[in-house]
Amino acid sequence: MSAAFAATEGVQSSDAEQRSEAELAALPLETLMQVTISTATRLEQPIVDAPAAAVVLTAADIRDFGWKTLADALASLPGLYISYDRTYAYLGARGFQRPGDYNSRFLLLIDGVRTNDAVYDQAAIGTDFPLDMDLVERIEYVPGSGSAVYGSNALFGIVNVITRTGKTLQGPEVAVAVGSFGEKKARASYGWHGSNGADVVLSASSYVRSGQDLYYPEFDTPDQNHGVAQGLDYDRAQDFLAKFAYGDFAFSAGYGNRKKGAPDAPYGAMFNTPFSTNDTHSFINGTFSHAVTDGLKLATQIYWGRYDYRSSSYYSPGPSAQNIDGDHALWYGADVHATYTSIPKNKMVLGMEYMRDARRDQYNYNVDPYAVLLDDHRSSNKVGIYAEDELQLPANFSLNAGLRYDQETVSGANLSPRLALAYKVTSNDTLKLVYGRAYRAPNAYELYYSVPGPGGQLSNPSLKAEHITTSEFIYERQIGRAGRATLSLFRYDIRDLISETTDSSGLYKFENLNRAEAKGAELSYEQRFGWGARIRASYSWQIAHDADSGAVLQNSPRHLAKLNAVVPVFHNAALIGAELQCVASRLAEQGHAPGYCLGNVTVGSSRLISHANLSFSIYNVTNARYADPAGPGFTQETIEQQSRTFLLKLVYGF
């Protein structure tokens, strides 16, 4: 459930796994706290040395808390919160989640490779995420600015999803699940690890959910079915993953297709008429890593990605009113970097990345009579050069310094520095001061999308990149043999903030209008106990406001409180995983979304059925009624969220 326990491998369904976890809990604290991550700097380093308050979630967490999506997992982390409009899940951090933003201010990696698409720069974290959560071995989250290493998009954090290997799968594995509102899921996976080091993973999964009829008082009229959207909350997805590794080479390919009904009639669509979105993600990645000498290692990534979006909706009565909206995004690139450790007390990374957004195409048309409203074709190039040095200084000080220069077709030149000074006060106490700057180039949707009519938008090719400056103080303390506490005090300032506004004609338009500022604190604590229990808790306080007007930002909770706990019962025959998430009230465009507390419980056992893990989850245990602020394209001010649901799941390993 934390970085200290990230060495736990995969979702296993045997008693051997429980024994290995018990053995892990018995390791000395110094060993546990030296678990390494590479997301923060591209250097393999202990998490306590990372220039951020990094956190790691493991496959055991995903299993024990019954997380079905990446959004579920991220919602448990300090300072993060999720909004959902019944189509997409949106990630907020440290009091910032801009209406109309498709998670473009976070960088999402799969096995270290960028997955944000070339049109929306979207980080897909809901059921549109192109991986089954059962295939996730760990999630590394690095909060704060990360452009010094990765370039655009890493304003508020980096999420690196690391997939399982054939060694952790160890043969065939199948999973089936059934739940509320017609939810069904099936997965078949195979993993193999040879004595020569070769490693293979193959997996395919399918998911379907009928959903429920939903009531929206804003549409409660006789000609709009009295505000009830019937049969429009469905969700269907298929995912595929193939991985192969041997020696210095690794290859992976993935595919994910999701079709989701949109029951809340956004962007002026007719209520209770067919409205769906279809998201298809594909990727192919190849890596080569080779130690030239003891002090020099070369690594290369070659990647290709594609994202296709298509939405069908109706804006006036009759079959002739059908409108199709969509995009085709295609990108490819390469990253080459060298890690040099021959200079005493230095670890250096020097690298260069080239990326071509070959297709940033957007289209929109009416079906009958056929009328093209948008047919826009774009492409762009990006080149980045970066350097990172981890320097050990006298008197228990260390300095991490990074700098990246990016040249982009759209946003021009951007320079992104990061400095992190760390001081080990004692063997258990570490202080960090972190300063960084990051940027986000405007995406193709913000720049070029232009469609007239209801819910339409104007293009704005003159948009500039937005920049964030962050400063943070971090105190980390090791507690006992297997505990960790972290205090983060942060402040950030965003300039040239890209915001979705409404033009005088009533059309939407993105503009560089605002400057936002925020300050806050995050306190987290995690502990593992020798008898198998573990706990993680956090509290976040933040104030985010418009720097010009002083107004509090929309969808910005002042307080977040979270608790995750796993407790073995019946002499370790079963595990109970419980989580509680409390979110303070948030402003909407008009009015506000009240605060709420949400509880989930999962009970799982690997002893009821041989070679299998059986679990039963209850989400929103108290059936709390709560809502998230809606984006600017919605008639509703807030979107009511999911009522209590259930899920029964079986994972069987042959």
Secondary-structure topology with pairs:
Blueprint: H1 15-25, H2 29-32, E1 36-37, E2 45-46, E3 55-58, H3 59-65, H4 70-74, E4 80-84, E5 89-93, E6 107-110, E7 113-114, E8 136-143, H5 147-150, E9 157-163, H6 166-169, E10 171-179, E11 183-193, E12 199-209, E13 214-215, E14 228-229, E15 235-246, E16 249-261, E17 276-293, E18 296-314, E19 322-340, E20 346-366, E21 371-376, E22 380-392, E23 397-408, E24 412-424, E25 429-440, H7 444-448, E26 457-458, E27 466-479, E28 483-502, E29 508-528, E30 534-546, E31 559-569, E32 574-583, E33 586-587, E34 592-593, E35 596-605, E36 612-619, E37 627-629, E38 638-640, E39 645-653
Parallel strand pairs: 6-9, 26-29
Antiparallel strand pairs: 1-2, 3-8, 4-5, 6-7, 8-9, 10-11, 10-39, 11-12, 12-15, 13-14, 15-16, 16-17, 17-18, 18-19, 19-20, 20-21, 20-22, 22-23, 23-24, 24-25, 25-27, 27-28, 28-29, 29-30, 30-31, 31-32, 32-35, 33-34, 35-36, 36-39, 37-38
